[in-house]
């Protein structure tokens, strides 16, 4: 509506002018109209999830700050395809923005793959300190080689073990257990070093696999464990927090380069607010999940010897992290 009113106003002015005056008026109107910005953003998650709600918050803030000149529309629930497909559209400039797992940008900036190593982050707070600091910003800046502007990081929680046999306090407790892991050599080796057997089973088959004894358990964050009702077939959840892998949201560099410095700064500012909002929403969702699990009588074990797990997975970090040695040293040094 605003765009139409602006054009009608420009035409009315033009009718009262002649020659160069009319041309100038129309030119100014065109420049003003061109400043309107429609941002399309993709996410595989549905609305109501921390990442989608944080991006919605970002869009509302931008809209308010610009009196409706900048609008953001979220294409959630894989409407524009999976993460890989959405990222490719952003690189081409067909889509302005998307939120993806760091693994998807690993082929562009290989150092992001270091985040998939077990215990590369000692805690959620340590991860925040790394990605909010010099290291995290350097990695985001390097995405420009892939036609991407890194805007910020988002939380995806910490993955811990759950199974139907016993609490997991030390790596020895995993010996002989078959644990479903994501299909990645790092995670399969991680289980082997801990004494268990890593089974890369499809996530949508996991409930039945645990129910029938194909696997004894799996690993994931508390909200996923709760919402998928895996507690019904695996009632022991142990806070090993062996994997803390953040996610990122990126903007198309091809579109970014056409924006004014003012709009670029606004989007940067909105991105910081979106990161803060997503962390707040994720924390609330995680606390709610934990409360629901405790109410259901699920055993949540926080008596975990993390030092033993860190030591047990050292060979995994050495094997898969050799090429990231300098980066890992820098990450470890962050307080």
Question: Please, could you describe this protein's structure?
Answer:
This protein is an alpha/beta fold and 335 residues long. It has three domains: 1-34; 38-115 and 123-154 and 246-281, Bacterial extracellular solute-binding protein, family 7 (D-Maltodextrin-Binding Protein, domain 2), CATH 3.40.190.170; 158-244 and 287-333, Bacterial extracellular solute-binding protein, family 7 (D-Maltodextrin-Binding Protein, domain 2). It is built from 15 helices and eleven strands. The strands form three sheets. It has a five-stranded mixed beta sheet with strand order 2-1-3-10-4, with helices on both faces. Helix 8 (185-194) links the parallel strand 6 (178-180) and strand 7. Helix 3 packs antiparallel against helix 12. The radius of gyration is 24 Å and the shape is globular.
CATH class of the largest domain: Alpha Beta
Task: Give the ordered list of helices and strands.
Answer: HHEHEHEHHHEEEHEHEHEEHHEHHH
- The portion of residues forming beta strands comes to 15-25%
Residue stretches low in confidence (pLDDT < 50, at least 5 long) are 1-34
User: How far from one another are the termini?
Assistant: 51 Å
Q: What percentage of residues falls in helices of 4 or more residues?
A: 40-55%
| Assigned CATH superfamily of the largest domain | Bacterial extracellular solute-binding protein, family 7
Tally the structural domains: 3
Main beta sheet = 5 strands, mixed
Shape: globular
Across the major sheet, the strand order is 2-1-3-10-4
CA radius of gyration: 24 Å
């Amino acid at each position: 509506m605003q765009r139409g009113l602006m054009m009608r106003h420009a035409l009315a002015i033009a009718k009262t002018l002649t020659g160069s005056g009319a041309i100038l008026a129309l030119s100014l109107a065109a420049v003003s109209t061109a400043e309107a910005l429609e941002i399309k953003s993709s996410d595989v998650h549905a609305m109501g999830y921390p990442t989608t709600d944080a991006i919605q918050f970002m869009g509302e803030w931008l809209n308010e700050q610009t009196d409706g000149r900048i609008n953001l529309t979220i294409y959630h629930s894989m409407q524009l395809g999976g993460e890989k497909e959405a990222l490719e559209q952003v690189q081409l400039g067909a889509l302005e923005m998307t939120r993806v797992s760091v693994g998807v940008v690993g082929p562009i900036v290989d150092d992001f793959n270091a985040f998939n190593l077990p215990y590369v982050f000692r805690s959620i707070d340590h991860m925040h300190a790394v990605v909010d600091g010099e290291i995290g910003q350097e990695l985001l800046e390097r995405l420009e080689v892939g036609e991407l502007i890194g805007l910020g990081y988002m939380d995806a929680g910490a993955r811990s073990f759950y199974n139907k046999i016993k609490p997991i306090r030390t790596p020895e407790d995993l010996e002989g257990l078959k644990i479903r892991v994501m299909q990645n050599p790092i995670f399969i080796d991680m289980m082997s070093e801990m004494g268990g057997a890593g089974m890369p089973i499809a996530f949508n088959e996991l409930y039945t696999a645990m129910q029938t004894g194909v696997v004894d358990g799996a690993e994931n964050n508390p909200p996923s464990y709760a919402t998928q009702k895996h507690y019904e077939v695996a009632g022991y959840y142990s806070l090993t927090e062996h994997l803390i892998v953040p996610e990122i949201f990126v903007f198309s560099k091809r579109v970014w380069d056409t924006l004014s410095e003012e709009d670029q700064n606004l989007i940067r500012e909105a991105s910081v607010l979106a990161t803060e909002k997503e962390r707040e929403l994720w924390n609330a969702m995680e606390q709610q999940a934990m409360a629901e699990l405790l109410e259901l009588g699920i055993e949540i074990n926080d008596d975990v010897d993390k030092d033993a797990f860190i030591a047990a997975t050292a060979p995994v970090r050495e094997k898969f992290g050799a090429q990231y040695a300098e980066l890992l040293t820098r990450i470890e040094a962050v307080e």
